[in-house]
Write a structure and sequence with these properties.
Length: about 280
């Protein structure tokens, strides 16, 4: 139903609940592929984010928009006397996270289905809160981050990570340009508001956080060829854009797009640059 809704409504006429339904459906669809090795920047970013928390080992940490649990499980491994609560609105993503936790024998993490805009925890009940590649999916990031901060004790830490504006460039531009030529609109580009250090600082300041610092890291790597790029596209959030193409057109679209991408390949393969901003603040 959500996929049909997407086709029937231009983004400009959708309300917040309609957009939320589309996002939830998208992440449920891609959940079983979100841990694909080609998306290894997710676990790499989780390690970087965990490093920034400088944990003692006994903290209670909230992981908002946990997805398949990359950050939550990384944190749990560093908290022998602590606990992690991971929340997400996608049941499919949470199923993957729980499976990974069980397979690894991780007992100090709990996963719950919960919207980041309606967190059901007591105020000041965590020592820290994190959100990796998730805050930009809501329109009102400022209010959402402020609410997340209320769940952290005074003096505690909040850490976000999100994409820089040029992430996946130029491969992403080749994709979106070709989609636009097929009449597929871009989803709301709310992420661009925090795609710079200034944007991250403004978000944290507006949410009432202090002692803010921002670190930029390139979490990129080399892809073997254009087919690995398609694995990136198909196994992450871009699939929701591709779903707007008529099914019969997708094979031709893929062939045309990958021909464009292959032209950029060097002897080392295809460079996938992934600029990521890590923002740390104190409650």
């Amino acid at each position: 139903p959500a996929r049909s809704l997407w086709r029937q409504n231009p983004f400009s006429t959708m309300n917040a609940e309609q957009v939320r339904a589309i996002l939830k459906d998208t992440f449920n669809v891609v959940a079983d592929a979100y841990d694909h090795p080609v998306l290894r920047f997710f676990p790499a970013s989780a390690r970087q984010l965990a490093d920034l928390l400088e944990l003692r080992g006994d903290e209670r940490v909230l992981d908002v928009a946990t997805g398949t649990g990359h950050v939550a499980l990384e944190l749990a491994a560093r908290l022998p006397r602590g606990r992690v609560a991971g929340v997400d609105f996608s049941a499919g993503m949470l199923a993957q996270a729980r499976q990974k936790a069980a397979a690894r024998g991780v007992a100090n993490v709990e996963f719950a289905e919960m919207d980041m805009q309606a967190l059901k925890f007591d105020d000041a009940s965590f020592d820290a809160a994190v959100c990796a590649f998730g805050i930009f999916f809501v329109e009102d990031m400022e209010t959402t981050l402020a609410q997340i901060a209320t769940k952290v004790r005074p003096g505690g830490t909040v850490v976000l990570c999100n994409f820089q504006k040029d992430y996946f460039f130029p491969l992403r531009k080749l994709l979106t340009d070709r989609l636009a030529a097929h009449g597929v609109p871009l989803p709301p580009q709310t992420w661009e508001r925090i795609a710079s250090e200034a944007g991250c600082r403004t978000l944290f300041a507006t949410a009432g956080l202090r002692d803010v610092r921002v670190e930029a890291r390139n979490m990129g790597y080399w892809l073997a060829d254009e087919n690995e790029w398609w694995d990136v596209v198909w196994n992450a959030g871009f699939r929701r854009m591709l779903s707007q193409l008529p099914a019969a057109d997708l094979p031709r679209f893929r062939a045309d797009h990958l021909r464009d991408v292959a032209a950029l390949k060097t002897a080392q393969g295809l460079r996938l640059d992934i600029g990521v901003l890590f923002t740390v603040g104190t409650v």
